[in-house]
Each structure stands twice: as C-alpha cells, then as structure tokens.
Amino acid sequence: MSTNSNKITAGLLAYGMSGKVFHAPFLNAHNGFNLKAVVERSNKNAITDYPEIISYNSVDELLADEEIKLVVINTPNNLHYEHSRAALENGKHILVEKPFTATSTQAKELFDLADKVGKQIFFYQNRRWDSDFASVKKVLASGKLGKLNEMHLRYDRYRNVIGPKAFKEKAIEASGLLYDLGPHLLDQVISLFGKPLSFHKVLGKNRKDTLVDDYFTIQLSYADSVNVFVTSSMLVVNPQAAFVLHGVYGSFIKQRADIQEEQLLAGMKLTDDGYGIEPKGKDGLLTTIDDDGNKTEEIIPSEIGNYLPLFDAVYESLTTNIPYPVSREDVITQLEIIES
C-alpha cells in the first residue's frame, strides 16, 4: 500500500452489497484515498459503518461535489454507461464495476470522452485478485503442466427462482447471467491469454418463467491448440471444480474458494487475522506424470486473497501514471464476446 500523504477523495454511487463489501472497506483502509461520500436514496446505512461519511440523496449531488476526484460506478448494470458519462462530464475519474457497459460501442464512446476531458477510467475486475485464481497463475508460471492444451473455468450457483433485482432478471440492457458472471470469467482468461483467435458461445434459459439467460458456456480458441472453456449456471446443486487445467505433463484441479466476500459480509476487517485465507481442504491438486509413467500428486496452497492491490493499482495510475493492469483492450475483447 502506498504511504503517499496526498489522498484522493472518493465517492460511491451506491451503498448496497457491492458498496459495503467490495469498495468502502478498501477505500477506507487504503491510505491513498479519502472515502468522503456515498449516494443513498432512502435508507441511510453508511454512517453506521463510517460516521464521518456524507450521504447524498442523488447521483447529481455527489457528482457536484468538487472535492471528489474518483467516483465508483457501482449502480445497476443498465446504468453504468449513463453514470460513467455523467461522472466524466463532471470532471471525475471513474472506477466502474463489471460489466463496464452493455456494448463495446458504448465503451469506446466513454474512452473517447475520458481522453477529451483528461480523466482516467478503471475497471473493477476484482477476480484477478482471488486466492483461487492466484493458485492457477502460480501453477501455470511454474511450467509443471508443460504445454497447456485445455482449461475449464466454472462459476456456478443454485437459484431456481427469479430474483428480486430487476437489472439482472428483466429483459433490459446488460441483464442476465452472461452479463453478471461472464465478465469475471472472461477477464480471468483474457488476463492470462489475451484475445482469442475465435470463440463459440451457447446461452440457455432453464428456470421457470425466466426472461434472461441463466446458463452460458463459451469455448475460446488460442494459438498452439490451447482451448479454454468458461461455463456458468444458476441451476447447479453440486458445484464442480472451478478450475481444471490439462497440460502435456499433468493436470491441476481447484475449487472456487476465495473467502473475501463471505468474510466482509460477516463484518470481518481487512486487518483481522485470517482475512483472505481459504478454508482448510480447499487447496488445489496438481498431478504430474514423468516419462516412465509415474504419477506425482502435489497439494498447491493458495495465496492469500486480497482486493487491496486493485486499489493500489488505481492509486498508482492516478499519481504516477503506471498503467492499470486491466486495459481498455481487455475490456473491449470481453464485451465483443458477450454482446456477439
């Protein structure tokens, strides 16, 4: 974490689950930021957690606050474009939750606007800093799998009823499971391999009376015969392994086990002992084979999960112009796949 005393004043456009769990604790803990304000249209809950915070009644009020330099766009998916544009036009840098926008055309319009007004756009792709994904990167970097030939990523849930959040369940812009969890899975793949040579996508509607997709699978082809499959379903009672990798010399299997969201929802602080540490028994299993056919099994402990480096990256980019790790090209690639 940076120790620079020049703090960047930040504001949140909402204080629902994402504001309370994914943004406020990190902006508050990071000594490069000053979390000044939040938008709460009805219930004023933020003051309980942050007694000094200002709770504005509207987005317009927060955007009019000249002290705020960075705005977190954590409103419903279909409002990301509108609120991002308004924040940029008000001279703010923005950190935008996934999906960044509903279309790549909207994204490019915002990029042009940001360049015109001299402000930066940051993409909140926090799953790059999950403990389970860190173990995947560790195994790939070790070279123990040899040439990779196949990789599967899954993000499954079981919710057989239509949820209350209209922006996820109504047939409106950027709704459905693909826009909800697709950005997580695709960003992880793109962070490893870049833009695919080609892809094939399948969507499904399986819950009774659903208006949006609640299943998707995408096959992405890369050079050297590397094939990656991302899959998500809302009707999986017994979740499968979240990460399965196969290479010339072995396989790696890992459950989805990052604990940060659960811990923060339960009220744990970033400084508490055990924060970001996966439960026992969730380690990955690496199985390799030698030239004589002998198999070796190796337990791969995960790194500690921590989303704070994402906020480090935002701060460093704003203060020293170090490039943010999630690029515009990454997001355009992601959106072109989702909107196709």
List the helices and strands and how they pair.
Layout (H helix, E strand, L loop, with lengths): L7 E5 L4 H13 L3 E7 L6 H4 L4 E3 L2 H5 L6 E4 L6 H10 L3 E5 L6 H14 L3 E4 L6 H12 L5 E9 L9 H4 L7 H17 L4 E7 L10 E8 L3 E8 L9 E5 L2 E5 L5 H6 L18 E6 L5 E6 L7 H13 L7 H12 L1
Parallel strand pairs: 1-2, 1-4, 2-3, 4-5, 5-6, 7-10
Antiparallel strand pairs: 7-11, 8-9, 9-10, 11-12, 12-13, 13-14
Helix pairs in contact: 4-5, 5-11, 8-11
Question: How would you characterize this protein structure?
Answer:
This protein has 2 domains: 8-124 and 309-323, 3-Layer(aba) Sandwich (Rossmann fold); 127-305, Dihydrodipicolinate Reductase, domain 2. It contains 11 helices and 14 strands. The protein has helices spanning 17-29, 46-49, 59-63, 80-89, 104-117, 131-142, 166-169, 177-193, 260-265, 308-320, 328-339, and strands at 8-12, 33-39, 54-56, 70-73, 93-97, 121-124, 148-156, 198-204, 215-222, 226-233, 243-247, 250-254, 284-289, 295-300. The strands form 2 sheets. It has an 8-stranded mixed sheet with strand order 8-9-10-7-11-12-13-14, with helices on one face. Helix 4 (80-89) runs parallel beside helix 5. The protein starts with 7 loop residues before the first strand and ends with a helix. The model has no long low-confidence stretch (mean pLDDT 95).
